[in-house]
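Per your request, structure below.
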C-alpha cells in the first residue's frame, strides 16, 4: 500500500470511530446510477472489489424510437430502481445496516432520470441513517478503471469517451481533475450513434459500427481527421459526421450502392485516429506514464487496439475497463464514491440532480 492510501485509510478509521462509532476497517458502499437509460445498483467494498453489479438496460425500449426518450427513461427508472437495489444487496449478501454509505450519480445526465436515483438514495440514506455521497458521472467512468487494476493510482491521464462526453482529463489525485481537452460539438459516442443511424444500422450505433467494421476496409474512404486550431487537445466530430452524410448522399445521387462495412470501418478509423493523436500529444507534452480510457466508447475494439499500441510504443502503461464497466453501471459509481467518502465528501438532504454538473464541482 502506498503512503498516501495508508494515510487516507487511517484518517477514515479515526473519523468512523469518532463520528459514526463503527470500528470495522472495510468501507462498503451501495451505489446507484440512473443518469441515462440504465437503471443500476451495485455494492462495492473499499472502492475496488465489486460484490454485486446489477444493470437493468432500457435499450430495447428506446430502440423503438431510434434514441433515448427522456420521459420514458425516467418512468422506467422509477419502475426498476427498487428491484435493482434489492438484487444488488441480495447478491452481495449485505443488509442496509452493513452498508457504510450510499453513493449516487447526481449529474451530468437527463434531469428526470437523475432525480429518480437521487431521490431514492436520499430516502435510503435518511431511513438507514447512512452518509449520502453524490458522485459525478464522469468521475465514475474514470474510477471504473480501479475495479480491475488494483495497482492503478493517480496521477494518470484518462480519455473519457461516452454518448454525452469526450474529455481528456488529468487525474491529479482521487477526486481531483484537470480537463485538458474536450469536444467542441458532438461527443464521440453521439457521432457513432448518428452515423450508424445514417447508414441504416440503427440504435445503439457504437456497438453496431464496431461489429460491422470488422468486415470493412478502414482505408476505403478518406474521411477528414478534424483538429481544432490552437487547441491541440480539443475534439470536433460533427465535421466527420457530415462528411459521412455527404458521402452517402453523393452515392445515392449517382445511383451507386455504398458499402455499409467500408463506411463504418473508415469512420471508426477517422474517429480513433483523432482520439489517439490528441491523447498521445498529451502523453508527450505532460510526460505521462499511465493512461486509462473510460466510457461507453472505450469498449470499441479499434480504439482499444490503437490506444494500446500507441501507449506501448511510448512505454506508457495502458488501462481499460472490461466492457461491462465501460458502459453505464453502478459499480463505477461505488468505486468513485469510496474515494469521495475517504476524502470527506458528504452531501445533505438538499442534494439535487444537476444535469450539467462540471467535473470537479461539489
Ligand atoms: O458511457 P455510456 O454507456 O453512456 C453515457 O454516459 O453516455 O456510453 C454510451 C455510448 C453510446 O453512444 C454508444 O453507442 C457508445 O457508448 N458505445 C460504443 C461502443 N459501445 C458503446 N461506441 C463505439 N464502439 C463500441 N463498441
Ligand atoms: Zn456514461
Amino acid at each position: 500500500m502506498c503512503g498516501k492510501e495508508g494515510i487516507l485509510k487511517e484518517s477514515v478509521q479515526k473519523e468512523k470511530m469518532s463520528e459514526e462509532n463503527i470500528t470495522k476497517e472495510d468501507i462498503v458502499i451501495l451505489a446507484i446510477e440512473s443518469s441515462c437509460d440504465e437503471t443500476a445498483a451495485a455494492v462495492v467494498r473499499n472502492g475496488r472489489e465489486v460484490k454485486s453489479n446489477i444493470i437493468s438496460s432500457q435499450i430495447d425500449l428506446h430502440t423503438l424510437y431510434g434514441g433515448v426518450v427522456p420521459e420514458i427513461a425516467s418512468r422506467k427508472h422509477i419502475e426498476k430502481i427498487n428491484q435493482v437495489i434489492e438484487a444488488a444487496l441480495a447478491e452481495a449478501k449485505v443488509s442496509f445496516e452493513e452498508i457504510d454509505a450510499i453513493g449516487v450519480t447526481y449529474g451530468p445526465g437527463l434531469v428526470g432520470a437523475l432525480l429518480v436515483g437521487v431521490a431514492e438514495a436520499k430516502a435510503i440514506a435518511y431511513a438507514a441513517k447512512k452518509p449520502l455521497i453524490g458522485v459525478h458521472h464522469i468521475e465514475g467512468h474514470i474510477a471504473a478503471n480501479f475495479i480491475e487494476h488494483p495497482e492503478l493510482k493517480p496521477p494518470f491521464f484518462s480519455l473519457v469517451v461516452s454518448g454525452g462526453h469526450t474529455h481528456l482529463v488529468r487525474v491529479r489525485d482521487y477526486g481531483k481533475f484537470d480537463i485538458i481537452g474536450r469536444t467542441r460539438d458532438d461527443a464521440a459516442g453521439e457521432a457513432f450513434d448518428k452515423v450508424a443511424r445514417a447508414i441504416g444500422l440503427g440504435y445503439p450505433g457504437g456497438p453496431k459500427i464496431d461489429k460491422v467494421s470488422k468486415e470493412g476496409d478502414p482505408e476505403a474512404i478518406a474521411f477528414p481527421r478534424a483538429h481544432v486550431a490552437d487547441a491541440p487537445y480539443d475534439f470536433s466530430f460533427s465535421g466527420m459526421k457530415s462528411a459521412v452524410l455527404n458521402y452517402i448522399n453523393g452515392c445515392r445521387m449517382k445511383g451507386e450502392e455504398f458499402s455499409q462495412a467500408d463506411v463504418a470501418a473508415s469512420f471508426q478509423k477517422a474517429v480513433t485516429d483523432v482520439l489517439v493523436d490528441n491523447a498521445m500529444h498529451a502523453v508527450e507534452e505532460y510526460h505521462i506514464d499511465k493512461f486509462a480510457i473510460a466510457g461507453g466508447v472505450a469498449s470499441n475494439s479499434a480504439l482499444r487496439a490503437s490506444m494500446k499500441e500507441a501507449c506501448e510504443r511510448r512505454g506508457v502503461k495502458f488501462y481499460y475497463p472490461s466492457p461491462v464497466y465501460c458502459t453505464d453501471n453502478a459499480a463505477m459509481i461505488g468505486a468513485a464514491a469510496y474515494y469521495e467518502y475517504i476524502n470527506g465528501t458528504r452531501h445533505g438532504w438538499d442534494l439535487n440532480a444537476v444535469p450539467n454538473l462540471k467535473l470537479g464541482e461539489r
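Residues 1-23 have pLDDT under 50 and may be disordered.

Regards,
D.
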